Amino acid sequence: MKNKNTAAAVVIAAAAVILLSSIAAVVISRRKPAGSTVEIISDGKVICTLDLSSEPDREITVEYKGRKNIIAIENGDIYMKEAECPDHTCMKTGRLSEAGVPIVCLPNHLIIRYKNGGGDTDAAA
Amino acid sequence: MTAACIFMGGCSGGNGYFDEPVSKSDFLMDTYMTVTVYNGSSSAPEKALSRAGELEKKWSVTDSSSEIYAADHSGGKPVTLSEDTADLVSFALSMNEKTDGALDISLYPVLREWGFTTGEYRVPEDSRITELLESVGCEKLSLDGRDITVPDGMSIDLGSVGKGRAGDEMIKTLKENGVTSAMLDLGGNIQLLGSKPDGSDFRIAVRHPSGEGNLAKVEVSDCAVITSGGYERFFEQDGNIYWHILDPKTGCPAHSGVVSATVIGKSGTLCDALSTSLFVMGTERAADLWRASDDFDYILVTDDGRAVITEGIENSFTLYDEFSSMTVEVVRREK
Domain limits at B292? Predict the structure, then answer.
């Protein structure tokens, strides 16, 4: 069950993404080559879909319960640049790799992953 | 708990498989779980996640209503566990013996002292570790049927086996709901039911020990593929890296020469337990245990850059091109 605070957090997060990614709508509407489409999921909702093959360098800020994560896109790579969480496991994951391993910030319920798994595998262990 | 429901289709084709797989995710057991089914009931993923949620409530170390919390805060009095919990504790105790102490569910106070349970990392004083290790050891626990006694001052947690058992239980739930082809991704623990809809094997990448990118892939069906690696949780202090897999004998991060251990087998519970154990045990003891068993295979990556694999997985294991010069040693039944 989603409470009002959580719903508000998702709305704020979505608004932040829209504000900070002025060209997102253009990117989303483009035809994307298989395997390079990345989803940003905040608290279970897909808030952003990106084609890394044509995405310009920029940063995206996502907020969850007042805590911020800054996602960076650089030269077609995506990674967690900053995270207001205790362990920073998401930052240590490094750049999103093409085969299955998502970037996960558990405390802030934030996931960055390839939409269709990416690469030539179904998952990564 | 918020369930993230990402339906990618769901209409059943003429062959009994969905046109597009049905997938559902949730934050459970301190990880992000995704269940993907290719046939059966489209509500099966939700039911599987709900089974994992039930088990999390029983096994959480921090939830004051859990069975493990009750056992850990019993002041040394017996606590009656549910069958789910008693079975898993009993399995973990048997694995403690089988691995000569490499898997130890009573190590929790030491793990907490290092900050691996909270993210507030620190290197404890040697004297503090010595003191805490006095209250560690599965032989001090007693399980009589479903009654467990955790002596005062000790704590147990099922973190090293819980996700694997949850995966096995989720697969059971999927089967009860008509699913014969599915993939569970429990935060890097992969559990597979059957093969892919076209009958081919699933292709599962094995992560590089650095945590960035993948080292190899295995092509397998109807089994669990579970990796323990230092990259999963670690911190750096004064130029040293400290990871979360501790050697129960020293109370410090395990340095057996193994930097990543992937275990493949039918039982997710066993693979989960062994991925931690083999990381602690190192290549020689791992090979001895494998030769004495018939229910798993493994891929160990060593700190000197070798991949040590067992012969059962030899034909389904492929290194990625950028690592093709890596030495691969195959462990065989006959030395």
Answer: 201-331
Q: Does A12 reside within a domain?
A: yes
The complex scores an ipTM of 0.86
Whether B6 contacts A46, CB under 8 Å? yes
How far apart CA A105 and CA A34 sit, in angstroms, is 25
Q: What is the pLDDT of residues B95-135, one digit of tens each?
A: 999 999 999 999 999 999 999 988 889 999 999 999 999 99
A-B C-beta contacts closer than 8 Å: 99
Residues B142 and B219 in one domain: no
| Chain A partners within 8 Å of B50 (Cβ) | none
Q: Please give the C-alpha separations between residue A118 and each of B74, B249, B286, B322, in angstroms, as whole numbers.
A: 48, 41, 33, 18
User: Best mutation site among A49, A67, A101 for testing chain B: the one with the most B CBs within 10 Å?
Assistant: A101
Give me the residue from B190, B207, B212 closest to A95, CB to CB.
B212
Quick check: A4 contacting B, CB < 8 Å? no
Neighboring chain B residues of A104 at a CB cutoff of 8 Å: 31-32, 187
B227 plus B142 within the same structural domain: no
B213-257 pLDDT tens trace: 789 999 999 999 999 988 778 888 888 999 999 999 999 999 999
Count Cβ atoms below 10 Å from residue B226 Cβ, excluding itself: 29
- The CATH number linked to A100 is 2.60.320.10
**Which candidate, B297, B217, B294, B293, places its Cα nearest to that of B265?**
B297
Nearest to B211 among A41, A92, A104 (CB): A92
Q: Is A44 on the interface with B (CB under 8 A)?
A: yes
- Domain containing residue B286: CATH number: 3.10.520.10
